[in-house]
Design a protein that fits this description.
By secondary structure, the protein is an all-alpha fold. 70% of the residues lie in helices and 0% in strands. The chain is built from 9 helices and no strands. The radius of gyration is 23 Å and the shape is globular.
């Protein structure tokens, strides 16, 4: 006889109580992954972005589940998180493309007059050479990251960008903790060999 499917509210309740966290999170992941992926897909996000954004939603769920007061409201809460992730992504893309802010003409003229009336100030910022070297480092890092296997690269992103623990990465990625540690070690070695100690990841 088949085991009856566990209700979502029960899964959420057990997660909040710290019971069978990895298994219960896996159940939520399986139950809602396709629905969330479709949420981003119908908004015309590229396939790779749909995957990343869906995973961001689950990271937010994992971190914020303790603040959900009523387990029965999980699906509505999940939709709100998905909408927020989507809007944040849209705003990020628009900010990238946004033109410089409009400045009234009289402000421009006043600024020009002030510039002519005062001696130029030397910019204490980084030299052109330093800027070029930093850009070269970033480009080299990006190239090496793209060469890593996708699962390894995602583990590294969760560790560095999201600051998740090994255990949290294991839950989100549905891997064992030892596999996560192995991925991070291999990623560090790849960065060390190709780029050097400047990019070591703890």
């Amino acid at each position: 006889m088949a085991t009856p499917e566990k209700a979502t509210a029960e899964i959420v309740r057990e997660l909040k109580q710290g019971r069978e966290r990895q298994e219960n999170f896996r159940l939520l992941f399986q139950r809602y992954y396709a629905r969330l992926y479709r949420f981003f897909q119908i908004r015309r996000m590229p396939a790779a972005d749909c995957q990343d954004l869906t995973q961001q939603v689950f990271i937010s769920v994992y971190r914020g589940l303790g603040g959900l007061r009523q387990e029965e409201q999980f699906e509505g809460w999940l939709r709100t998180i998905a909408k927020n992730v989507y809007m944040h992504e849209v705003e990020y893309r628009q900010a990238d493309k946004r033109a410089a802010p409009h400045v009234p003409l009289d402000e421009v003229e006043r600024a020009e007059d002030a510039h002519r009336a005062t001696p130029p100030v030397i910019d204490p910022g980084p030299s052109a050479l330093e800027t070029l070297l930093e850009r070269e480092k970033r480009e080299k890092l990006r190239a090496v990251l793209q060469e890593l296997p996708m699962q390894m690269r995602r583990c590294l992103q969760l560790r560095v960008a999201e600051e998740l623990s090994h255990q949290e990465i294991a839950v989100v990625m549905r891997l064992s903790v030892n596999t996560v540690k192995a991925h991070l070690y291999q990623a560090r070695e790849a960065l060390r060999k190709r780029i050097g100690k400047d990019f070591l990841i703890e």
